[in-house]
């Protein structure tokens, strides 16, 4: 029972940290969310499937209209 309570407390702390980070950011948006900007994930040079940015470009997610 003690381990379950500790696990729940740690998960609650993690969710609270994420919530505070979203709350502190302007409009809840995170910068650099394109996976194409990360050379560890995108080693083939593919464009971002969300905004179309190449690895050497800035994320264009702000310009994409949903």
Please give a structural write-up:
The chain has one helix at 2-24. The radius of gyration is 17 Å and the shape is elongated. The protein is built from one helix and no strands. With 66 residues, it is mainly α. The longest helix has 23 residues, at 2-24. The mean pLDDT is 76. It has a domain at 31-66.
Overall pLDDT: 76
Unreliable runs, pLDDT <50, ≥5 residues?
A: none
Largest sheet, if any? Answer: none
**Tally of DSSP β-strands:** 0
Quick structural summary:
With 66 residues, the chain is mostly helical.
Secondary-structure blueprint:
Layout: H1 2-24
Which terms summarize this structure?
66 residues, mainly alpha, 1 helix, 0% strand
